[in-house]
Design goal:
single chain, mainly beta, 45% strand
């Protein structure tokens, strides 16, 4: 296993759930990401930092997508 530094950029995401470990949001292309603590509610759109490499890691773990 190797360390992969995050490469974050700001994206408009839709909050799906608010949990104890942070807000879970969905990106415009359907990836679920934890955006950390937020003051939003489900179905609200917010700008949040999203790791661009999430998509790359997801593709490596599930090559059928």
């Amino acid at each position: 296993m190797w360390y992969v530094a995050p490469a974050e950029n700001m994206e408009l995401v839709r909050i799906v759930a608010v949990t104890e470990s942070g807000c879970i949001a969905e990106t415009s292309d359907g990836f679920a990401v934890n955006i950390g603590e937020c003051r939003g509610e489900p179905n609200q759109y917010v700008m949040a930092p999203v790791d661009k490499k999430v998509r790359e890691r997801a593709a490596l773990m599930n090559p059928t997508t």
